[in-house]
Amino acid sequence: MTEKLKSAPLPAVESLSFEAALKELEGIVGRLEQGEVDLEDSIALYERGQELKAHCEKKLKSAEGRLEKIVLGASGPAGTEPMEPL
């Protein structure tokens, strides 16, 4: 038996917090891994997942930049190291 995508409109990816986007992405991965979604819905889920992944990466990169500014502070780069990528 295949599972159809819900017809309720999904929120715009850009409006989601990192946590909400990650939770939705985890749900998509779970559904795709189960293999009980028909081809068209699988494609739609995959596309949504790609958007969510890009959104999460953008949010993380922004957070890294903000943390580096906090660490650097007004004194400049003396004695600081940039954050390592996740």
CATH class of one domain: Mainly Alpha
CATH topology (level 3) name of one domain: Helix Hairpins
Average pLDDT figure: 84
Structural class: mainly alpha
Number of strands: 0
Report the biggest beta sheet as strand number plus sense, adding barrel if it closes. none
Question: What is the CA-atom radius of gyration, in angstroms?
Answer: 18 Å
Mass-distribution shape: elongated
The helix count comes to 2
What is the CA-CA span between the terminal residues? 39 Å
CATH architectural grouping of one domain: Orthogonal Bundle
Determine the strand fraction and express it as a percent band: under 5%
Unreliable sequence segments: none
Element pattern in H and E = HH
- Approximate helicity band: 55-70%
Secondary structure topology:
Layout: H1 18-34, H2 39-72
Helix pairs in contact: 1-2
What does this protein look like?
The protein starts with 17 loop residues before the first helix and ends in a 14-residue tail after the last helix. Helix content is 59%, strand content 0%. The protein has a domain of 59 residues: Helix Hairpins. It has two helices and no strands. α1 runs antiparallel to α2. The protein is mainly α.
